[in-house]
Amino acid sequence: ANSISIEQLVLGRILQTFSGSAGITIARSIALDSGTRDQAASTMAYIFLPITLVPLIASPLSGAITDMFNWRWIFHFTAVLGLLGFLFVIFLVSDTSRVATQPRRKLTDIKPLWYSQRFKGYCGHHSFVVVALQVINASTPIIIILQLGFSATEYGIFASIPALGSITGAIAGGKLATKLGGDKLISAGSLIALLSYIFIVAMATMGQLSPWTIFLPMILISFSNAMILPSSSAGALEGLTGLGGFGAGLMGMIQWLSAGIMVQFAAFWVESSAITVFLLSLCVYLCGIFSFYYARIER
Question: For residues 57 and 178, what is the distance between their CA atoms, to the nearest angstrom?
Answer without folding.
Answer: 30
